[in-house]
């Protein structure tokens, strides 16, 4: 009898331990304190159960320190709930060799043939734009380079309202690695070890930091300000393009914000290219929107760009031919002939302001910075491949593509089946006005505002990117809490594909 009683007491203890653990888990789940829950599962003390197995109770405090008055970041002592709850971000103090040292020798090392110092000045905005054609507003306009996003984002991140110096309190961790500026130094380098060196060094350094082990990098993110194929060299052949940064196991665990992503990758998020407009107030944004709403547009459509030598892959030559044939209906700025004009914000914006539709064919890759410049000018973009925008900027552009754009299949242009002018002329005045209004409404979402302004503007491209990162990290935390193994292969919508297969996928989507 005594033996049975002892056994019963032991089982009661076991049930009590199980109940206590379940109660703690439920409490943390309901309160949204996932980081504490992860600590609970990763750091624990084991207790024997009937001499056969063990179960664990945490060795750390059961309740998170995140929302106590004494531990709120940045001196906030307002109580348990604060406006930054769930939005705190910690910035890694990266060695300077991963960011500022890369752009220090901007006159020769960033790109061999160009002096890039102007491009990285003013926090990545570049020099103030000259308003030679009296097109632009007095303030907020810069000659911004299309690949300057890393510096822009880093400077904006320093002004983020919910920064914390305590990494344990952060919902996400920003890593200011200038990956795009790094790879641009060596894109034409034949030695792949040189191309890969900084990325390998970065992956090794970040994985050794104490913050890494909390979620093995799944709460980390960085910005790569070039197209994703610059970081996904598929083989070790020196003739293949780019480095292997995005294929490193550590980087596969991180979220990467890029100007062009791969849709099947769970770690890439496409965010807008930088435009020329970086306003300092909401009033500047609204004044520009009002200006372009009232703008008279004498041309039906326009194209700003250069032809491509590979005529089988590119339709640009056919587009230029059609534009020239349309005469007064189409305005052409051929960047092979007028290259200086194509880098002049006033000249480019004049083209878009005077056109109802702006052609956005693929070039070296599917996306174009010109897409966002045309939106900035209130000009309705015309796409020829779904990869130009529809498969990319899902958090920025309307789901119903016909609300703000026109789609003409590449194959129709290549085979001479379709006249661009005829397609666009069929749009009624009412349709055009409605689409243009939708385009103009998009402007605040696709620009990066000046952080020196005190951020007195509506939600911009940066804000949307941060929301997406936090959403993804929180989803990952819930997955970990629920005991699911988050491997890259399981999360991918489809297996790893080559650039050739990627191209074929988009051709099929036409």
UniProtKB/TrEMBL annotation:
Annotated TM spans: 15-34
GO cellular component, one term: Golgi membrane
Main location: Golgi
Membrane topology recorded in Swiss-Prot or TrEMBL: Single-pass type II membrane protein
Pfam family, one: Exostosin_GT47
UniProt keyword annotations, A-Z: Glycosyltransferase, Golgi apparatus, Membrane, Signal-anchor, Transferase, Transmembrane, Transmembrane helix
Superkingdom of the organism of origin: Eukaryota
Matching InterPro entries: Exostosin, Exostosin_GT47
Subcellular compartments: Golgi apparatus membrane
Residue ranges occupied by any Exostosin GT47 domain in the UniProt entry: 83-420
Keyword Glycosyltransferase set for record: yes
GO molecular function: glycosyltransferase activity
Family membership noted in the UniProt record: Belongs to the glycosyltransferase 47 family.
Designated name of the protein: Xyloglucan galactosyltransferase KATAMARI1 homolog
Species per Swiss-Prot/TrEMBL record: Coffea arabica
């Amino acid at each position: 009898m005594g033996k049975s009683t002892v056994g019963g007491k032991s089982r009661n203890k076991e049930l009590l331990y199980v109940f206590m653990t379940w109660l703690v888990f439920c409490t943390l789940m309901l309160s949204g304190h996932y980081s504490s829950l992860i600590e609970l599962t990763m750091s624990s003390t084991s207790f024997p159960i009937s001499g056969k197995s063990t179960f664990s109770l945490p060795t750390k405090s059961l309740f998170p320190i995140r929302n106590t008055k004494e531990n709120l970041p940045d001196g906030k002592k307002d109580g348990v709930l604060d406006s930054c709850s769930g939005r705190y971000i910690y910035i890694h103090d990266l060695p300077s060799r991963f960011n500022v040292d890369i752009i220090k020798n901007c006159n020769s090392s960033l790109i061999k043939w160009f002096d890039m110092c102007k491009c990285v000045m003013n926090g990545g905005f570049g020099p103030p734009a000259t308003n030679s054609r009296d097109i632009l507003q007095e303030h907020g306009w810069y000659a911004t380079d299309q690949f300057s996003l890393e510096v822009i984002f880093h400077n904006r991140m320093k002004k983020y309202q919910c920064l914390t110096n305590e990494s344990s309190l952060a919902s996400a961790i920003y890593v200011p690695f200038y990956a795009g500026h790094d790879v641009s130094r060596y894109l034409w380098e034949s030695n792949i070890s040189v191309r890969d060196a900084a990325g390998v060094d970065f992956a090794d350094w970040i994985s050794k930091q104490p913050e890494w082990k909390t979620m093995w990098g799944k709460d980390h993110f960085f910005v790569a300000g070039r197209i994703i194929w610059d970081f996904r060299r598929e083989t070790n052949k020196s003739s293949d393009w780019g480095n292997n940064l995005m294929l490193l196991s550590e980087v596969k665990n991180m979220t990467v914000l890029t100007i062009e992503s791969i849709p099947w990758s769970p770690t890439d998020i496409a965010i807008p290219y930088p435009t020329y407009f970086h306003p300092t107030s909401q009033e500047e944004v609204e004044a520009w929107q009002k200006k372009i709403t009232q703008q008279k547009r004498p041309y039906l459509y326009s194209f700003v760009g250069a032809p491509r030598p590979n005529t089988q892959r590119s339709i640009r030559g056919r587009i230029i031919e059609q534009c020239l044939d349309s005469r007064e209906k189409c305005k052409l700025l051929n960047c092979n002939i007028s290259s200086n004009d194509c880098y002049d914000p006033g000249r480019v914006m004049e083209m878009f302001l005077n056109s109802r539709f702006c052609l956005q064919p693929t070039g070296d890759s599917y996306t174009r910075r010109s897409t966002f410049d045309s939106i900035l000018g209130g000009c309705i973009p015309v796409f020829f491949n779904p990869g130009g925008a529809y498969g990319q900027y899902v958090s920025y552009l309307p789901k119903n593509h016909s609300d703000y754009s026109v789609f003409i299949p590449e194959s129709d242009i290549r085979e001479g089946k379709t006249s661009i002018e005829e397609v666009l002329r069929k749009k009624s005045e009412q349709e055009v006005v409605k689409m243009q209004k939708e385009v103009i409404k998009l402007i605040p979402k696709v620009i990066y505002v000046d952080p020196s302004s005190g951020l007195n503007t509506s939600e911009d491209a940066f804000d949307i990117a941060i929301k997406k990162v936090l959403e993804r990290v929180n989803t990952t935390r819930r997955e970990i809490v629920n005991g699911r193994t988050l491997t890259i292969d399981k999360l991918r919508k489809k297996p790893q594909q080559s650039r050739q297969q990627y191209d074929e996928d988009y051709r099929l989507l036409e």
